[in-house]
């Protein structure tokens, strides 16, 4: 019975994905929306698309992600991994916050990774200009996901919106094959915690937590650093100022 807005990098990808799934048999509906997460102006346009389709969002799942083997910069001047994995979801969430707040129990779900535990983050170097590697960039972006989640949850504690992050497991996806090799679990298993955080009444009042296998789990010390979360928030806002 849900109306699902299915995001794709471009119109063709989003439309073909919607054509491959059918929610109508269960009383649901799927609508394609699109935007390249490496281009911040497309994120602004994506938010406008979404607002044109719905007046409220019960759930926003930030799941898009990338792992790059070579360091490259976007046309906006961001390091590519951080652009797609951190800056884009930060901007999209900010742009959609008003319609999430229209929901009786709005939920924001941020897909991170256990790799965040191997990361350090310098809020003054979000371009990752020093000692870059594909793994370090990915892990840093996943640490940024949790810090963003926690900072946003703090800002929304007086509202009906809850914000939580998760590790989906090591799942057999295109990203895994491109970065870590073959193997991994089923995509259905990787979706379980995201679906749980999106729909379960058990977490209606839980916010600012990190989940693994649908259970609250302790994240790294850096991920729980409130000062670091605030510094990251400030630096991200400064970097995105012309798009906010």
Report what the structure shows.
- Strand 1, helix 1 and strand 2 form a beta-alpha-beta unit.
- It contains seven helices and seven strands; from the N terminus they run E-H-E-H-E-H-E-H-E-H-H-E-E-H.
- Helix content is 41%, strand content 13%.
- The strands form two sheets. Strands 3-4-5-6-7 form a five-stranded mixed beta sheet, with helices on both faces. Strands 1-2 form a two-stranded parallel ribbon.
Which percent range describes the beta-strand content?
Answer: 5-15%
> Tally of extended strands?
7
- Sequence stretches where pLDDT stays below 50 over 5 or more residues: none
Shape: globular
Largest sheet: 5 strands, mixed
Number of helical segments with 4 or more residues = 7
- Average pLDDT, all residues: 92
- Taking all Cα atoms into account, the compactness measure Rg is 17 Å
Q: Please bin the fraction of helical residues.
A: 40-55%
Structural class from helices and strands?
alpha/beta
What is the terminal separation in angstroms? 33 Å
Order of helical and strand elements: EHEHEHEHEHHEEH
Strand order of the largest sheet: 3-4-5-6-7
Give the key terms.
244 residues
């Amino acid at each position: 019975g849900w109306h699902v807005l299915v995001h794709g990098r471009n119109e063709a990808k989003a439309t073909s994905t919607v054509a491959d799934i059918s929610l109508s048999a269960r009383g649901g509906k799927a609508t394609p929306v699109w935007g390249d997460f490496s281009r911040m102006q497309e994120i602004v346009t994506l938010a406008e698309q979404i607002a044109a389709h719905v007046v409220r969002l019960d759930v926003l799942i930030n799941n898009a992600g990338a792992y790059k083997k070579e360091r490259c910069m976007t046309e906006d001047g961001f390091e590519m991994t951080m652009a797609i994995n951190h800056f884009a979801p930060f901007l999209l969430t900010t742009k959609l916050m008003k319609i999430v707040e229209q929901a009786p129990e709005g939920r924001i779900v941020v897909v991170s990774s256990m790799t965040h535990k191997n990361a350090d983050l310098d809020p003054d170097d979000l371009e990752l200009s020093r000692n870059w590697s594909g793994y370090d960039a990915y892990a840093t972006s996943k640490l940024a996901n949790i810090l963003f989640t926690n900072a946003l949850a703090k800002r929304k504690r007086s509202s009906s919106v809850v914000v939580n992050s998760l590790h989906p497991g090591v799942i057999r996806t295109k990203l895994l094959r491109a970065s870590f090799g073959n193997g991994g679990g089923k995509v259905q298993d990787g979706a379980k915690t995201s679906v749980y955080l999106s729909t379960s009444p058990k977490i209606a009042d839980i916010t600012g937590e990190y989940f693994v296998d649908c259970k609250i789990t302790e994240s790294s010390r850096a991920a729980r650093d409130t000062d670091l979360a605030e510094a990251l928030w400030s630096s991200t806002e400064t970097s995105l100022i012309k798009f906010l």
